[in-house]
Amino acid sequence: MTNPSFRPIVLCLSGHDPIGGAGIQADIEALLAQNCHAAPAITALTIQDTVNVSDFRVLDHDWIVAQARAILSDVSVSAIKLGMLGSSEMVRTAIEVMHMTPNIPVICDPVLRAEGGGSLGAGDVGFTLREELLPLAHIVTPNLPEAQMLAELPYGTEDECAEVLLRHCKNLLITGGHGPENELHNRLYLEDGSRHDIIQQRLPGKYHGSGCTLASALAGRIAQGENLLSAVHSALNYTWRTLRDAEAPGKGQYIPRRLPL
Q: How many CB atoms lie within 10 A of CB 205?
């Protein structure tokens, strides 16, 4: 009996969100929607709901490495998606995992703060991300507040933040939706020096897990072999549809509907 062909596998290092809007569950659902298989290694546990984050705990280095080693010793992965890391120590653990499987594209969603405002990073995690991990990533996908934190420019524009961050990373997608604008302005900066503006209709409401959804969908498109510019368009369009069809299960933000009914 021959083995059937399998979907591309994406190794995900992300936190666990007990409400299911962001984190590992978002990774799994978004990757399924791209016809990929998620292989998750949980980096942190959080206490959060649809309103905000109240606490988090980063897991032990040895557990993360053991999870990743178990995955990589058994299957071949086509991409790595990084979500919440939570501490400088976990950033360095993620780098250690990345070195286990070199030449695999890494999609980094620099999760530093929840949509509700609660912190998802301790100490100088943003600095460590920028200086040590971003240079190893294929693409980094911050929203504008995260880009401002990473660039240490509290009131910086997309271009001002990009000028700083592109000294550290190859490709950068800064997503919109966190300001008063009537449209979503997403700006992609590629290592060839080109800049691409991708404008979408802005939807009403606030959403929990949109960044995780986007980065995971992008990882899936890249794992499927799509070129970066096309993959960004595909992932943004998919994410917009999940927000258009989002649900409101709790007292706070909407949760993207990543899988069809």
A: 9
